[in-house]
Each structure stands twice: as structure tokens, then as C-alpha cells.
Amino acid sequence: MAAEGPTPDQKADYLVRKLEQTIRDNRTVKGMSFRTWQAIAREEIVNAMREHEKRQMRHDQTVNRLVLASASSLVTIGFWGAMVAVNSAYGGVAAIIVLVAGAALFFVTADWGVKRFTSSYNKHKRVERLAHIEDLDKRIKRMEHDMKKKADRLKETQAKLGEIEV
Predict the structure, then answer these.
(1) What is the 3-state secondary structure (H, E, C) of 73-141?
(2) Contact 34, 155 (CB under 8 A)
(3) Which of 22, 100, 101, 164 sees the fewest Cβ atoms within 10 Å?
(4) Sorted alphabetically, which keywords does the UniProt record give (predicted)?
């Protein structure tokens, strides 16, 4: 299940960055009201919890499907194996049915394995994307800080030039 999504720390960092961006985008001269911020934060947390529950439900469905297919395949194989042991007249029919049950079991477990592999790959990609987002956020904040310094220096220079001209 852990391979299905980001870690709680990564998700929390993402939510904090998303809330920070929302606050920056919606701020006014007076700032954002606390009630608005609470509503936005609540919505983001609820969305994160729903996403987690959805992933958990999909995981449970996959496991249940695997168990059901395994059980039905093994029962079918056992039943027809017993039929062959009792009377060899049904050997061809039993072989075909056992082959189909075995194939069903194989395909369900193969599907489960492929889903696990792809979810592991997707987790790796999500970690990379979150790292890139974090790096980009740091670079943007650094650029904002540098731009503010330059603007302050320009104001100081303009003020000095204004004093010189007078």
C-alpha cells in the first residue's frame, strides 16, 4: 500500500505549499481572512483524505479479487483432480477445465504483479516530481528575494539621484 502514494510527510509538504500559493494568490491589502483560509485548508485536507481512502479501497478490491480468483481456481483444480483420480474417463475435460482455472489464476496474479510494479514506478516518479516542485519553489523564493533587493537598491539609487539633482 505504501507504494501507491506519497508519504504522509510529502503529502503534508505538498498541502502546505498549495495553501501557501493559494494565500499568495488570494491576498489583498489587508490579507486573507482567517475563515477563508480555514475553509481552503479544510477543503485541501478533506481532498487528501478522500484520495487516500480511494487508494485504500482500490487496493482492497485488488486483494479481494486475487483471493477470490485464487480460491475458485484452486477449488476447481482440486475438484477436477479428484474426478480424474476417481474415474479417468473425464481426463480430457478435467485437463481443459484445470488449464482454464490455472490460466485465470495466472492472469489475476500477473495483473496484481503488474499493478504493484507500476505503482512502485509511479511512486518513484511522484517523489521526483515533488523534489522538482520543492526545488522550483526554493528557486522562485530566492528570485523573489533577489528582485526585492534589486528594487530596494533602485529606490535608494533613485533617492540619491533625486538628492543630487536638487
Answers:
(1) HHHHHHHHHHHHHHCHHHHHHHHHHHHHHHHHHHHHHHHHHHHHHHHHHHHHHHHHHHHHHHHHHHHHH
(2) no
(3) 164
(4) Coiled coil, Membrane, Transmembrane, Transmembrane helix
